[in-house]
């Protein structure tokens, strides 16, 4: 395992180690696990069971087994590293927002284990990782074949003691108990807990159908309540509901704008304070429907509100909710926001390509601002443009009326490319135009020496 350089221990016992390591070939993080041959035979058996499960399982949301080998003193394996947030550390607001998806995807992960003939046995929030709006399942060292009579590990040993033979119902009951601690105040979930605990709704599809029914039922109850209230002289409230009520009865991107401005008008203070308070209210109450995030117009509006609020937390939250496909349609705004947020992950190359194409249509002053942000991001993230995009960038630079500061920024990117053996030209007029600028002259001399 010399290929994998240890970074830090994730878990360590007298006989076994779990370590975060870096693959020296690909540069990616991986998880390495090892157990001494002198360890308890049952522990060694479970180590091999984990390898068997990960080898057989067909699910993109579990780790992949990369290597497994035996040395003179120990058994070892390497898995892909699932980086994300475990359910127990997930912000409460976000956990409630995605609660239906978390339930159904938990069952889907368990179904993947059950399909190959195993019970997972060790279900707990620490083993469920939220990443890129999907739920991943990790740590399969407690799995046992369906029908076994003995478990090595279990998150809920009281459930194991009740059953003579262990089957997938045990995982469903463990899921019910786990979700009960995560969502103690949800009426629909309390009903779901009881059904799961009694062995009903055994598939993710049936649970998804149940949750959809609960959601539709709650809306029917709301409409029915409005009709009942109208009988008692409150017909104006029903026949002429306010924009927020209309939106909540039938949420979509078209009604969102009216509802948002309706609540915004009720806020007091500066524009910044009103934007902060209004965004907090909408996010706290989970009023923003998915259709709003999937509409470029309303997604852009929300991002503008987040920028106006001057709160990086809102910007980060909205960037997580807006799909990548929609972000690619508004690259200028996304890159501007990303450039103001520290420690943000690099954007995919396709995003830079789309951004460069859209700069062309801007006026000179706007184009110059966008090019500044664009080239700063290229340098910060060490992005190398492909040949076609480089030609496009060179053409844009030649057509844009720039200043000395921007010319220096562009020249810094040219020097970065030179260091990688890539040639790129600068506008012919620049050396003479910026000859009086000291920083330009210094960078220009370096560029000439490298040419």
TrEMBL record:
- Please write the reaction equations for the catalytic activity of this protein: L-threonyl-[protein] + ATP = O-phospho-L-threonyl-[protein] + ADP + H(+); L-seryl-[protein] + ATP = O-phospho-L-seryl-[protein] + ADP + H(+)
Its taxonomic path starts at:
Bacteria, Bacillati, Bacillota, Erysipelotrichia, Erysipelotrichales
Where in this chain does the record put each Protein kinase domain?
Answer: 4-261
Q: Which GO terms describe its molecular function?
A: ATP binding; protein serine/threonine kinase activity
Per the UniProt record, the source organism is Catenisphaera adipataccumulans
This protein's name: non-specific serine/threonine protein kinase
UniProt-listed InterPro entries:
Kinase-like_dom_sf, Prot_kinase_dom, Ser_Thr_kinase_AGC
**EC number(s) reported in the record:** 2.7.11.1
Which keywords, in A-to-Z order, does the entry hold? ATP-binding, Kinase, Nucleotide-binding, Serine/threonine-protein kinase, Transferase
Q: Name one GO biological process term.
A: intracellular signal transduction
């Amino acid at each position: 395992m010399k290929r994998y350089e240890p970074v830090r221990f994730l878990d360590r016992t007298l006989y076994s180690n779990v370590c975060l390591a870096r693959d020296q070939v690909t540069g990616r993080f991986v998880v390495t696990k090892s157990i001494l041959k002198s360890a308890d035979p049952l522990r060694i058996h479970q180590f091999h069971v984990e390898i068997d499960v990960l080898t057989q399982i067909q699910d993109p949301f579990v780790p992949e087994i990369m290597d497994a080998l035996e040395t003179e003193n120990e058994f070892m394996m390497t898995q892909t590293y699932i980086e994300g947030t475990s359910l127990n550390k997930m912000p409460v607001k976000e956990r409630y927002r995605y609660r239906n998806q978390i339930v159904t995807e938990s069952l889907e992960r368990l179904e993947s284990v059950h399909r190959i003939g195993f019970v997972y046995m060790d279900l707990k929030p620490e083993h469920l990782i939220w990443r890129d709006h999907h739920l991943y399942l990790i740590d399969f060292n407690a799995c046992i074949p369906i029908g076994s009579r003995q478990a090595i590990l279990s998150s809920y040993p009281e459930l194991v003691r009740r059953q003579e033979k262990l089957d997938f119902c045990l995982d469903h009951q463990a899921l019910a108990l786990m979700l009960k601690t995560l969502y103690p105040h949800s009426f629909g979930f309390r009903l779901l807990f009881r059904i799961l605990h009694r062995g009903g709704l055994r598939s993710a599809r049936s649970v998804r159908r149940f949750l959809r029914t609960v959601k539709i039922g709650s809306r029917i109850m709301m409409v029915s309540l409005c009709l009942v209230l109208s009988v008692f002289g409150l017909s104006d409230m029903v026949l002429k509901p306010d924009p927020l009520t209309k939106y909540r009865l039938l949420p979509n991107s078209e009604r969102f704008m009216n509802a948002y401005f309706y609540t915004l008008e009720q806020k007091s203070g500066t524009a910044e304070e009103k934007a902060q308070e209004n965004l907090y209210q909408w996010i706290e109450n989970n009023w923003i429907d998915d259709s709003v995030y999937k509409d470029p117009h309303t997604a852009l509006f929300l991002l503008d509100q987040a920028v106006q609020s001057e709160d990086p937390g809102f910007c980060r939250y909205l960037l997580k909710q807006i799909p990548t496909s929609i972000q690619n349609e508004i690259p200028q705004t996304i890159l501007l926001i990303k450039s103001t947020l520290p420690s943000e992950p690099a954007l995919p190359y396709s995003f830079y390509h789309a951004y460069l194409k859209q700069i062309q249509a801007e006026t000179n002053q706007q184009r110059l601002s966008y090019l500044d942000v664009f080239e700063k991001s290229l340098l910060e993230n060490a992005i190398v443009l492909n040949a076609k995009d480089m030609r496009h960038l060179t053409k844009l630079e030649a057509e844009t009326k720039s200043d000395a500061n921007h010319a220096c920024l562009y020249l810094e990117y040219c020097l970065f490319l030179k260091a990688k053996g890539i040639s790129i030209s600068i506008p012919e007029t620049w050396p003479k135009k910026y000859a009086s600028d000291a920083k330009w002259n210094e960078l220009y001399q370096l560029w000439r020496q490298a040419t």
